[in-house]
Amino acid sequence: MGVTVTFVEEDGTERTFEDVSTGQSLMEVGRTNGVAGILADCGGACACATCHVYVDEAWMEKVGAPDSIEEEMLDLVSEFHKPNSRLSCQIPLTDELDGLKVEVAPTGY
Ligand code: FES
Q1: In the 3-class helix/strand/coil scheme, how is the chain assigned residue by residue?
Q2: What domains sit in the chain, N to C, each tagged with a CATH number?
Q3: How confident is residue 59, by pLDDT bands cut at 50, 70 and 90?
Q4: How many alpha carbons lie under 13 Å from residue 75 in its C-beta half-sphere?
Q5: Best of 42, 85, 102 to mutate for ligand 1, by most ligand atoms within 8 A of CB?
Q6: What CA–CA distance (Å, rounded) separates 55 from 85?
Q7: Distance, CA 89 to ligand 1 centroid (Å)?
Q8: Residue 109: its pLDDT value, please?
Q9: Residue in 59, 45, 69, 46 with CA at minimum distance from that of residue 93
Q10: What is the pLDDT of residues 76-96, one digit of tens each?
């Protein structure tokens, strides 16, 4: 049984995906399904910040905080960096995250 995740694209469009396999990253779900703004240029290596999302407040505790490397990448997009910023390639999907909702951050270019 997979999990359900929702991305809110920059124009407000909600994209919900059901029965998504765990064990992949949130970024992979977005990229595979063509979610606008999830470019994932580095392929998930925490080296580009083009998979930046804002985690819905209700989910922040379960998703957790970024590590120091991720935090440094987020600083590179500092004008869009918020307290609930995460790089979606660094969020592995688990059963615990069933129902997760994130907003896609502006890419800035
Ligand atoms: S895909 Fe490049 S940092 Fe996430």
Answers
A1: CCEEEEEECCCCCEEEEEEECCCCEHHHHHHHCCCCCCCCCCCCCCCCCCCEEEECHHHHHHHCCCCHHHHHHHHHCHHHCCCCEEEHHHCECCHHHCCCEEEECCCCC
A2: 3-104 (3.10.20.30)
A3: very high
A4: 6
A5: 42
A6: 6
A7: 5
A8: 52
A9: 59
A10: 888 899 999 999 999 999 999
Residue holding tokens 């790089």? 87
Decide whether any atom of ligand 1 lies within 6 Å of the 5 Cβ: no
16-58: pLDDT as tens digits: 999 999 999 999 999 999 999 999 999 999 999 999 999 999 9
Query: 26: CA distance to ligand 1 center in Å?
Result: 11
Best mutation site among 29, 48, 102 for ligand 1 pocket (most ligand atoms within 8 Å of CB): 48
What per-residue confidence (pLDDT) applies to 87? 97
Mean pLDDT, rounded, for 60-79? 94
